[in-house]
Amino acid sequence: MTQSICPICEGEMNFHFSVPCDYRKPSEKKEYKVFWCSACDYGHIWDRPLWNEIKESYQIDNYYTHQTQNEQKNKKLRQNSLEEKLRIYIAWRFDFGEHLKLKEISSYLRQKKVENTPKEGSVEKLSICEIGCGSGKNLKKFASLDFDIFGVEPDEEARKVALSITDSIFSGTAEELPTIITQRKYDCVLMSHSLEHTLDINKTIRNIKSVLCDYGLLIIEIPNSKCLGFQKLKGEWPWSDIPRHLNFFTPQSLKLLLERYNFYVESTNYVGFCRHFFPTWLDIEKEIHSAFASNNIDEWKTPNYKLRSWILLLQTLLSSNETKYDSVRMIAINNQS
Ligand SMILES: [Zn+2]
């Protein structure tokens, strides 16, 4: 095995943890190792998988980007016990996660667009390209604010759903952007829960930089590996989703990556607290645990899920945003040069 080198600082990475299999395919016993750069606080799966292995890892039932909204709603229709309701209620009262303020983004970009349009020219519509747009629910929101919307999505099933919103959805990845996408510039590029899936994070950010307007905004939201859920459970944390997630970022490492390409991080926000305490979340924790235990029963002792969930709730209610929320979102301005 070759040495794992950090793609952000190019320093040496060390072994952090491993999982005995893909929990969605427990019968295929295959170990995945995660290496960590302590200087950047960034981790990744090492060795890196091949493209065909990545493709195979998505060949599973009910991957969430494939689901229609009705299927997602049905999943939520589960009767919760009194104890579960109490846990969710407390978490909900302490969930101050901040969702994307679309109108603020729109008015900022509109102002920049006017400033950058020659006096005699007419101001064009704002444009957004989402890389990893899934079934297109984010693009739909931007369309309602009069953006021209464009999407890139590698998954055919998800693309079919997104194509019902706009024709401008194309097959591709962040590393291999479709040619048609690269033939213009966008006011905004969005990657929501897709950077963690990419094989080459440097090529991804370079590609984004090449299609963004000089004043453009890059919005990235990813699972937050600084949060206590990940710190405690590592590969058993539902949003680790190994091997579909190939990269593990903290707010520190995401900022370092963006600054490496001369982006100025304008804001850092956090989202996703309450959902840690839903029974559906605990069901996934149980599913992951039993898949891992089926491969190595001695190493994976069954925890008391209820107690563990209450302890996590009490430890995180009043903790810092970095350790509390499961996702971090950065909005960065594209500085040219
Ligand atoms: Zn590093």
From TrEMBL:
Keyword Methyltransferase: yes
Annotated keywords: Methyltransferase, Transferase
InterPro entries: SAM-dependent_MTases_sf
SUPFAM superfamilies hit by this protein: S-adenosyl-L-methionine-dependent methyltransferases (SSF53335)
GO BP term (any one): methylation
Single GO term (MF): methyltransferase activity
Gene3D superfamilies given in the database record: Vaccinia Virus protein VP39 (3.40.50.150)
PANTHER family: METHYLTRANSFERASE TYPE 11, TRANS-ACONITATE 2-METHYLTRANSFERASE-RELATED
Record protein name field: Methyltransferase type 11
Organism whose genome encodes this protein: Cyanobacterium aponinum (strain PCC 10605)
